[in-house]
Write a structure and sequence with these properties.
Oligomer: heterotrimer
Number of strands of chain A: 5
Number of strands of chain C: 11
Largest sheet of chain C: 5 strands, parallel
Distance between the termini of chain C: 38 Å
Bound molecules: guanosine-5'-triphosphate, magnesium ion
CATH superfamily of chain A: Cobalamin-binding domain
CATH topology of chain C: TIM Barrel
CATH class of chain C: Alpha Beta
Shape of chain A: globular
Largest sheet of chain A: 5 strands, parallel
Structural class of chain C: alpha/beta
Structural class of chain A: alpha/beta
Helix content of chain C: 40-55%
Radius of gyration of chain C: 24 Å
Distance between the termini of chain A: 12 Å
Chains: A alpha/beta (about 140), B alpha/beta (about 325), C alpha/beta (about 550)
Strand content of chain C: 5-15%
Number of helices of chain A: 6
């Protein structure tokens, strides 16, 4: 059915932990919207469990987390919680200030991509689209 | 309940069973399915149908920024106090150019996110008019079948054009806020007519009384002034006036007896059918290239055929044939 | 404002200008107009037609007097160099104390305290994920913690700037420490940085927030309390930095900051306070972007407008009230992760703009800010940058050294006009409190952020190493991270447990009840009750929990 192929990607854009600087997450949300995606946008300071719940209820294709302080340290916990909720196939990406040493650890924990400051709009949009597409094929959303 | 449906085991009836059992992941997936439309959606809805008709469907509409989402957040809390389950369908507009959308209504409902008795889903309008009503009413059906007792549908209604929410809800609440004089003018045209309950939010604003007065005089001037529409003041941000609103909603719903509900349901079906059929005709017209259609259009342009006659001819005739 | 060239008594001016125009046009037949970040068009050349000495007394005057354009003190940096205030805070109180002593040993007298983000969220250490504790600032929850931060340090001999957002618990803890040590509060000096709650709502920063009406009340309580009991303390630092970091243009950041200061002053006056008393204790805090001349013009224009507002709107006569005292920090937004050593050059240019703009106190960013929390090595380079600018380049020798530049004076005037028009917009919306409540300011800043990002995306705004002059990633500058060890954090948590066990819990209970009652009352001073509660032994998280419950949580005011 052609309509299902065209269904826009749904992406959850959020922030976890303690910091609330949201300039980056807003700009990324606007990028993704302008690329035709549906962005579920939350307030900062989300709890890991709340994010899992939202990702599940909203049936998103990808989670994007912005982290400018050290909140990315919580990402392994988010990935763990997603797996526990049977959402382990949902791609998680992070953007912001992530030191190299942490990046390695995050990738090992299952984060699919780390965007550093200065990442271009194209890079962000195309990576997100590709990961979301992959996730959707895996989950075969509309076919049963 | 956290077990995700295994893809290969999905059949319409299987998924429907999980939805009816209240499995959250299945509800989420089913919503995506019906939102996308098509055959899968039709099958699923059919399988869900016998479980529907129990939920109360409340529409909340009003101009941008009047505090609809905040009000919905407060209403959820009120309904949860009475141990009722609540679903919210929060609709935000998509960009007409890119089709993308930022869905931010949830921001005002954060405190309920981990409550198992609450299911919030953000929906993008994906174009205007009939499409929205159709998708929303399907999503509402899924939530209804899942056993959620109340389904609240938030849509932006700026005036005449976007009163889709009445196509979907049993009870429509129109929200306004003080200091939006122009919007009240616009409302006169459309929104006011469809309101079962009227709310002036941001009652903490000193201008609120003025707005209430304006609305009261407008209500008095209505053609059906006999129909009593409750007019309430709320300060959603401080949860003021919310129990009263919940009462008014209950009463409005109870006033709709079984027969009234059935009638409204038929009316809704009728409106849905009209908008959706209209959409289909429009899409097909756009996609059709053919001698017969050309002839019809030429005659209309030349003034030989008036629009109404042409439309009747169109619905009956075989101009659709591609030749 | 612009003068007719024919009025200029400069023989040959018109002709020479016409000739230059022609020659210029030959070399650059087609030129795209250039705009600065605030949207002011920048001409290729400025001359006496843009600014002439006849306007000197009206527009510039002398430092410390009149329009204040050239500076707020008669001797400016020549008399007393700007304070070098590096913001520090890391790990547990003992870590902070060690670093503080090193700074003091090297001659510093102005210090700062940055608490951990958990403190900003209004939480004690035992209320957050231990993984995050002490990774961005020092964990300070109790009087013991504050005492440990300043162990072997005479708190009355320092000027202490604390990042202490509403409800100002850190100052309360410092007052409790002073009590312990027998130091009268009147001997304390310093500033409550981050006291500007409006900026926190606007820029949706890192702080927890009490709902607007409660925030409004507590700030004024705090000003009233410190004016009376801690007279050497600056209770308000009005912050333009957050807004500029969130995307406001330099002119917007200045305008909205001035509007915020006006709002606070009006709120104080409504309380019956005297502008000549409270205004001299107002301070400001700004971002310095790399848009060099624009930043200098921003500061000069801001100084001029503030002096005018103070005299005309508030009728203040105390000359100290008209002084636009500000701390500034080089902007982290301009720094790049790519080729990070380039950031040292950026910080240098930003710092120069701030110094030429007449700042009173400066924080230079470490070049690795965008990589992680700054390392000590990078922080030292940042400090040395200031030393070099001051003592090798000798930027402080002359007051307002760029004053009189045709370009800068003209730009200052244009910036001033733009700021004034933005102030008028906020005034029309009913003042800053109202304009923020309705989201007007947030919307404007959001749009500016998008506009700027679009300029970077399409290459109109160069960012070296990012959209131009790119290299293959050079990662040699990445430094190693220092985070507090889990053992240290566990020890800190244990000390919090011990603290709670050791205190007079009945007294704490009573004090928290009093705080609750005062918060519910109409007009008792909430801050005074909060100070009493911390002296009685209440923790940061405990007093914040009371206020949140009684006064409501401040929610984000706008979504994109
Ligand atoms: N003063 C006041 N402000 C309120 C009240 N209720 C909501 N608001 C504020 O109004 C703004 C808009 O609230 P929302 O709930 O997002 O309004 P909305 O109608 O859902 O907005 P859209 O979905 O964008 O159309 C927010 O800043 C709320 O905090 C109230 O009772 N009083
Ligand atoms: Mg809304």
């Amino acid at each position: 059915m052609s309509t299902s192929a065209q269904r826009p990607y749904r992406v959850l854009v959020s922030k976890i932990g303690l910091d609330g600087h949201d300039r980056g997450s807003r700009i990324v949300a606007a990028y993704l919207r302008d690329a035709g995606m549906e962005v579920i946008y939350t307030a900062p300071w989300q709890e890991v469990q709340a994010l899992v719940r939202m990702a599940s209820d909203e049936d998103v294709d990808l989670i994007g987390i912005s982290s400018l302080a050290t909140d990315h340290l919580l990402l392994p916990k988010l990935l763990e919680a997603l797996r526990a909720a049977d959402l382990g196939d949902l791609p998680v990406v992070v953007g912001g200030i992530v030191p190299d040493e942490d990046e390695q650890a995050l990738i090992e924990a299952g984060v699919r991509r780390v965007f550093h400051p200065g990442s271009s709009r194209d890079e962000i949009v195309s990576t997100v689209a590709a990961l979301a597409a992959e996730a959707r094929i895996q989950r075969k959303t509309e076919s049963f | 309940m956290s077990v995700r449906p295994a893809v290969e085991s999905w059949g319409a009836s299987d998924l429907a069973a999980r939805v009816r059992a209240g499995n959250r992941a299945s509800i989420a997936r089913a919503i995506s399915t019906v939102e996308a439309g098509g055959k899968a959606s039709a099958e699923l809805l059919k399988a869900l149908h016998e479980a529907t008709g129990r939920a109360r469907l409340f529409g909340i509409t009003g101009a941008p920024g009047v505090g609809k989402s905040t009000l919905v957040g407060a209403l959820i809390a009120e309904l949860r106090n009475g141990y009722q389950s609540v679903a919210v369908i929060a609709v935000d507009p998509s960009s007409p150019v890119t089709g993308g959308a930022i869905l931010g209504d949830r921001v005002r409902m954060t405190q309920h996110v981990e409550d198992d008795g609450v299911f919030i889903r953000s929906l993008a309008s994906r174009g205007s008019g009939g499409g929205l009503s159709l998708a929303t009413s399907r999503v509402a059906e899924v939530l209804d079948a899942a056993g959620l007792e109340n389904v609240i549908i938030e849509t932006v209604g700026a005036g005449q054009s976007e009163i889709d929410v009445i196509d979907v809800a049993d009870i429509t609440t129109v929200v306004c806020a003080p200091g939006l004089g122009d919007d009240i003018q616009a409302m006169k045209a459309g929104l006011l007519e469809v309101a079962d309950v009227l709310v002036v939010n941001k009652a903490d604003d000193p201008m609120a009384t003025l707005t209430v007065n304006q609305l009261e005089s407008m209500l008095a001037l209505r053609s059906d002034a006999g129909r009593k529409v409750p007019l309430l003041k709320t300060a959603a941000r401080d949860a003021v006036g919310i129990p009263e609103l919940a009462d008014a909603l209950n009463q409005a719903f109870e006033k709709l007896d079984q027969q009234g509900r059935a009638e409204r349901r038929l009316q809704r079906m009728q409106r849905l059918l009209a908008t959706v059929a209209g959409g289909i005709v429009a899409r097909r017209l756009k996609a059709t290239r053919g001698r017969r259609l050309d002839q019809l259009l030429t005659r209309m342009a030349a003034g030989e055929l008036d629009v109404e006659t042409a439309a009747v001819a169109l619905l009956k005739s075989d101009v659709w044939r591609q030749d | 404002m612009r003068r007719q060239p024919s009025q200029l008594p400069l023989p040959g001016f018109d002709q020479a200008r016409a000739e230059w125009r022609r020659a210029y046009g030959e070399q650059l037949p087609e030129e795209r107009p250039i705009f600065n970040r605030s949207g002011i068009e920048i001409a290729p050349l400025y001359t006496p037609e843009h600014f002439s000495d006849e306007r000197y007394m009206d527009a510039l005057g002398f430092p410390g007097h009149g329009p204040m354009t050239r500076g707020i003190y008669p001797s400016m940096h020549r008399g007393r160099a700007w304070s070098q205030r590096q913001l520090i805070g890391l790990g547990v109180p003992e870590d902070y104390n060690r670093r503080l002593k090193r700074i003091l040993a090297s001659g510093g007298t102005a210090v700062s305290l940055i608490p951990c983000n958990s403190v900003y969220r209004g939480l004690d250490a035992d209320q957050v994920d231990p993984l995050l504790l002490g990774t961005c600032g020092a964990v300070v929850n109790t009087v013991d913690d504050m005492d440990a931060c300043f162990a072997d340090v005479a708190v009355d001999e320092l000027s202490t700037a604390m990042n202490d957002p509403l409800p100002f618990t850190l100052l309360a803890l410092l007052l409790a420490v002073s009590d312990r040590r027998g130091i009268p509060w009147t001997k304390l000096t310093g500033t409550s940085n981050q006291s500007d709650y409006i900026s926190h709502f606007v820029a949706n920063h890192m702080f927890f927030r009490i709902a607007l009406p409660g925030s409004r009340r507590i700030l004024i309580d705090h000003i009233e309390f410190t004016n009376r009991h801690v007279p050497g303390w600056n209770p308000v630092s009005v912050v333009g930095q957050h807004m500029q970091q969130a995307g406001a243009t330099p002119a917007e950041a200045m305008a909205f900051t001035l509007c915020t200061a006006v709002q606070y002053a009006e709120d104080c006056i409504a309380r019956g306070m005297d502008p000549d008393t409270f205004l001299p204790r107002f301070t400001f805090f700004f971002d310095i972007s790399i848009s060099f001349f624009e930043e200098i013009a921003k500061f000069r224009a801001g100084r001029r407008i503030w002096a005018r507002i103070v005299r005309q709107r508030f009728g203040a006569r105390n000359p100290r009230a008209a002084r636009f005292k500000f701390h500034a920090q080089t902007s982290g937004v301009d720094l790049t992760r790519q080729q990070p050593y380039n950031n040292i050059a950026r910080v240098t240019a930003q710092a120069m703009a701030g110094i030429f703009g007449g700042l009173q106190s400066l924080h230079t960013d470490a070049y690795d800010e965008v990589l992680s929390v700054p390392t000590e090595h990078a922080a030292r380079i940042a400090v040395c940058t200031q030393n070099i600018l001051r003592e090798e380049a000798q930027l402080g020798d002359v007051i307002d050294p760029l004053g009189g530049s045709y370009y800068l004076e003209h730009l200052t005037n244009e910036t001033e006009a733009l700021i004034e028009s933005l102030i008028a917009k906020v005034d029309d919306a009913g003042g800053m409190y109202r304009a923020v409540e309705t989201g007007l300011v947030q919307t404007m800043i959001g749009e500016s952020a998008m506009r700027f990002q679009a300029r970077v995306d399409n290459g109109e705004q160069t960012v070296v190493g990012v959209n131009k002059y790119r290299l293959e990633e050079d990662s040699d500058a990445r430094a190693s991270l220092k985070r507090p060890s889990p053992e240290k954090i566990e020890a800190q948590l244990e000390s919090l447990r011990q603290y709670k066990k050791g205190r007079d819990s009945a007294a704490v209970q009573r004090a928290l009840e009093t705080l609750t009652r005062v918060a519910d009352s109409e007009n008792e001073n909430v801050y005074a009750a909060l100070v009493e509660a911390t002296i009685a032994g209440a923790t940061h998280g405990e007093v914040v929990a009371v206020l949140r419950r009684e006064m409501g949580d401040g929610e984000p005011l706008i979504v994109p």
